[in-house]
Structures are given as structure tokens and as C-alpha cells.
Amino acid sequence: METLDGLAKADKLGTPEAAELRRRLGWEFDGMRLHEYYFENLGGKGGINKGGKLGKKIARIVGATRLLKKSSGPWPV
User: Which helix (H) or strand (E) holds 26?
Assistant: First the structure.
């Protein structure tokens, strides 16, 4: 923002540099807003239904992963 303010004070808002900065600012701002909308719309007021298909599948995967970690020692990085 400071760079755009500096270009405005120097009366250089019509330059390619200023156009690129405005384009990038719009891209970043729009991306942020789209992420906010996406996560707001995921919804859900409670936790996962642990008795449902997804809850049982997650519990099985997490349990298997914990068992694997315990049995195989330190994981290589």
C-alpha cells in the first residue's frame, strides 16, 4: 500500500508498475475473501458424528496411524 501511495504522490498511477501493484492487490484481496466465504459456508455447529460413517473411518485411520508410529520407532524425516 505504501508503494501505491508513493506512486500516487508522484503522479505515476498510470505506469505499468502501478497497474501491476493494483492487479496483485486485487488478486490477494479476492483470494482472501474467497477463502473466508468458503470456510464460513462449511458450517457446522457441533463436532463430527463419531457414530457415522465418516467418524468411524477417521477413528480407524487415526488408530492405525498411532499403532504404526508406536511399532516402527522414529520416522525418518
Answer: helix 16-42
**7, 17 contact by CB (below 8 A):** yes
d(CA 3, CA 25): 11
Q: Which three cell numbers stand for residue 47?
A: 463436532
The predicted model gives 30-49 an average pLDDT of: 84
- For residue 77, the model assigns a pLDDT of 46
For 29, 57, 60, 67, the CA distances from 72, given in Å and listed in that order, are 45, 22, 18, 9
Are 4 and 18 a contacting pair, CB within 8 Å?
Answer: yes
pTM here is 0.40
φ/ψ region of 44 (left if φ > 0, alpha if ψ in -120 to 50, else beta) reads left
Q: What is the mean pLDDT of residues 61-68?
A: 80
